[in-house]
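Entry for the shared binder. Reason: the reviewer on the internal report wants the predicted structure included alongside the sequence.
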Amino acid sequence: MSWIKKELKYLKESFSLMIKGFLLFLLAFSGLGVAILLRYLQYNGTIIAFVGIIIEAITLILSYFIFRKYIISKEETNSPNLKKNK
């Protein structure tokens, strides 16, 4: 029974990481989704490509900031361990 509590605690602690992962997944496929929607609405390929490139560029910028924030938080948690080892 205690392993269930342990796993639930782990899920609760990593919930924010799961949300970030899902957000990155949505951002990765947002350009494709918009391209499919525009194709369904009978837009030509030039407009679809232009809008897709703009959306993917925005997605890359947002993903960069999400990863940067995650890496900075990981480095801050690891920095006390580095000071203890020296």
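Summary line for the report: The mean pLDDT is 82.
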